[in-house]
TrEMBL record:
Protein name per the record: Extracellular calcium-sensing receptor-like
Organism: Nothobranchius furzeri
Compartment(s): Cell membrane
Domain G-protein coupled receptors family 3 profile: 501-765
Top-level taxon in the UniProt lineage: Eukaryota
Topology of the protein relative to the lipid bilayer: Multi-pass membrane protein
InterPro entries reported for this sequence: ANF_lig-bd_rcpt, GPCR_3, GPCR_3_9-Cys_dom, GPCR_3_9-Cys_sf, GPCR_3_C, GPCR_3_Ca_sens_rcpt-rel, GPCR_3_CS, GPCR_3_vmron_rcpt_2
Amino acid sequence: MIFAINEINNSTELLPGIKLGYQIYDSCASVPVAVHSAFQLLNGWDSAIDKDSSCSQSGGVVAVVGDSGSTPSISMSRIIGSFNIPLVSYFATCACLSDKQQYPTFFRTIPSDQFQADALAKLVKHFGWTWIGVVRSDTDYGNYGVASFLNAAQKVGICVEYSESFLRTDAQSKIQRVADVIRRSTALIVVAFIDSGDLPVLLDELALEPPPPRQWIISEGWITDPYLMTYSFCEGAIGFAIQKSIIPGLKEFLLDLSPTEVASSSVLTEFWEDAFNCSLKTINKTDKRLCDGNEDLKMLKNSYTDTSQLRISNMVYKAVYAIAHAIHNAVCRETVVSTKCDEDLRSDSEQIFKKLQKVYFFRNGYPVSFDANGDPVAFYELVNWQKSESGVFELVTVGYYDASLPKGQEFHVNNNISWLKGSTQVPVSVCSERCPPGTRKVLQKGKPICCYDCIPCPEGEISNTTDSPDCFPCPSELWPNAQRDACFPKPVEFLSYDEVLAIILAAFSVSGACLAIITAAIFFHHRTTPIVRANNSELSFLLLFSLTLCFLCSLTFIGAPSDWSCMLRHTAFGITFVLCISCVLGKTVVVLMAFKATLPGSNVMKWFGPPQQRMTVVFFTFVQVIICTVWLLLSPPFPMKNVSTYKEKIILECALGSAVGFWAVLGYIGLLAVFCFVLAVLARKLPDYFNEAKLITFSMLIFCAVWLTFIPAYVSSPGKLTVAVEIFAILASSFGLILCIFAPKCFIIIVQPEKNSKKYVINKK
């Protein structure tokens, strides 16, 4: 401060012809002392610990630089603000001081903690830390700073395991309790919003029983304190610091002290005696030697002579120059040639306060201005405690935070960071590991949102992002993979010719058709024999033809369903089976009526001759054709993707279109089969060597049994098995008909040809 005032007083551009004076009061980092000093300053009491002795006359106080602490600054601002005296602080960072309703005359050259809290939250979020601990000074600086930080952290999903506060004046038991919380915690990251005066008390307690490795995130209050860098368990600490600066000429000014100048100042006297371990007083009540005048400041190696880390000092430097520029703007007038200042003009504090709101200038390349809240533009350096080759901690700049940049671009960090224990790997601090794709987060009861369990997605659902809060179902035609992190097309299933079951059924189908054709060939070759001519050979050939179609129609049920195959398979099945049953029914009626015709005076057979038999077959078949036509016209079967039977696959099948049409076709077949069965039962005991009634009865019994069993099996069979059941019913009933009706006759024709003669029949009778 004194250096800046000397520069201003020697300047020909800033306040030419006007000298600034000063008085220094010690607040002792105590609110009562700070308040007392404020009253002394306002009342003009001459109790300053140091003042400018060159002032020929004293004037009213127009501005105050200070205090370094937020709490003392709050108290002082409330007092001197009533007199419109501006208070420009260089180290009071509490965000509460930006409230112009309560502190209208407060200014500062150091950024508000609101910016630092936002920067710390971005820092924690940048490295993926979601589980942290917080310790703070139980002061306005610590409490308001942590409140701002927690608010910013909550917005970006950061959880706090603990938040502890203390003061250096607290009982040792409380300090120990805070240290134990840090030792027992699971959070690896410790964010410390602590005054540099409070922190050594906590670190000393931790040093007695060092905690597990902790990554310290430090506020600007103590990140640059060289004394605190001696604690080895804080290696790798990182935090935001005030921008390092250069003040030309300051080092020379600090070293240019003579014993006479020192003796005239109580502050410098205390410093001198402590630095050189000697006494400037002639009456020495201590064991220190008398200073002999040969003490050389240039030989000292301490924080006083080290000007390589000018951070807070530059904030004081800016504060003094800001006040000087405000006074200059109040009492000086710029002309074309020079600047004229009215030395006799008495500027009051209110005038300086108004001018201070508008100052804007550069000093040593650094801009100085205040916004509407009295705050400067926030700029922080991100610094890291790194151990040098000599084994001591050094401050290394690894990034920055510039609030003047566009949103989202304020924060920048490089990779040259040394973490705890000198590691180059970013430490991990989470309450729960991240949930991989295929799982969802379920919060643990009674814990923060960062503590959760990872539950696998249920069947049919996926999550394709990390830490997904929910799983979502796949579309109806897709199904999750084994990891349940992606949906893939469901396999389409139908009774394909590539499958063993389809090959077996197709083989039986072709074999049955071949068997029917072979039987027809045998019958055609022996068409003149009695066994073929009995019961209308024309119906036998027509029955064999229809059975061939029945066997072959089952092939339409195999393969991928299409519009034409779906319509063909059901209609072909219905019509061919009706044709088949109609032929069997005709043969049964012929047998029954033949014996009725043997009665005297009966002419029944003229109504059941070959033409009538053909008309019966055509009529019954035509009825089925009409049913199928109506079905196809109104609501035909169509191919459908069945996604409800199986969740994990699609069944490609033929939808009935109209269930009424399907069951009408099937019911009509059943009605004819039952009617044929009843007639065959009535004719089964008629005495005739070639009586087919018994064979038809047995074949119809098998036919009805197969189709009665088919109904529940068809309804309950899932997927492609439904088709297989239908094919099996077709083949089983077809084989039942051909084997029961034609096998005995073929056996006689081939194995026992002697029985297939008219002579044998006559002898048998």
